[in-house]
Amino acid sequence: MIDRELSRRQMLATTAYTVAGLTLATSNLSAAQQEQAQKKQRTPPGFRLGVCDWTINKRCDPGALALAKKIGLDGVQVDFGGGPDKDPLLFNAELQSRYAEEVKAQSMRIASLAMGALNEVAYKSDPRAEKWVDQAIDVAQAMRQRIILLAFFSKGDLKNDAAGTDAVVSKLKNIASKAEKARVTLAVESWLSAEEHLKILDRVGSPAVQVYYDVANSHKMGYDIYKEIRTLGQQICQFHAKDNEQLYGKGAIDFQRVRAAMDEIDYRGWLVMEGTNVSLGVEESCRYDAEYLKTLFPRRV
Q1: Could you tell me what percentage of the chain is helix, strand and coil, using 3-state DSSP and rounding each to the nearest 5?
Q2: What is the CATH number of domain 45-296?
Q3: Are 185 and 179 in contact (CB under 8 A)?
Q4: Tell me, what's the pLDDT at 45?
Q5: Ranges of the chain whose pLDDT falls below 70
Q6: Helix (H) / strand (E) containing 271
Q7: What is the structure's pLDDT at 10?
Q8: In Å, how far are 10, 13, 86, 184, 203 from 64, measured between CA atoms?
Q9: Which of 138, 74, 73, 148 is closest to 115 using CA atoms?
Q10: pTM for the whole thing?
Q11: Dihedral sign for Cα atoms in the order 167, 170, 174, 176
Q12: Under 8 Å between Cβ of 188 and 152
């Protein structure tokens, strides 16, 4: 059974982040100005559309920003690179600087960072992965990023692996305080259900550990994704938009219902395209999907 008191404490801690920031920002304003600022803070903005750099064949390549701009997107999710035989490429300070330069040159954004290498260098069992996540927080700070996707697929899969899950919970507990201080969210993406994710989050007990929700992965597992989004609520820090079968709007994922569920949990932010069906070619398929998503997830709501 999920410890709801822990969930409540997580929510309070998350609220404290928000209140502290709002108080600092408005402390020197008049009463009317403070009221207006608080109203603006409460009003959710619209959505931003991005793409995973590996989806457009630009993994850990700053050139992904120019291509995403050409496609008509707002930004890119940047993978750390690396794998079983080499450390993540994004640990290199020169490469981080190249991203900063390209962000400015293209007037684009980085939606979040992702440690896809954890699929092969499993966080639950490989000592290198624990060190990588620790160092990734430093990279996120240097690059002014707030979300690091931690991938738990392939060798890192946690489904029906109680011992592996216990190991991951222990390691997340150890790193959570550093992530909290850095204001970086470690986002778990896996084959687990909403309820299984919540159990992990409750056991870790930190607002710095949340869920990266992939609608197509969860649909593939047979989960009711529209219910799951509501169940996870504000424990979801970001979304992958994906349809494993068709171009968006033509496959199994009902993005209108996804948007309705997002509205109920007050989610506004990034929707990052991954694994796009490339029947039109990579660039044209991404452009098609982006244009479709813009009709449901506009910049202003």
Answers
A1: 50, 15, 30
A2: 3.20.20.150
A3: yes
A4: 87
A5: 1-44
A6: strand 270-273
A7: 45
A8: 35, 35, 22, 23, 37
A9: 148
A10: 0.86
A11: positive
A12: yes
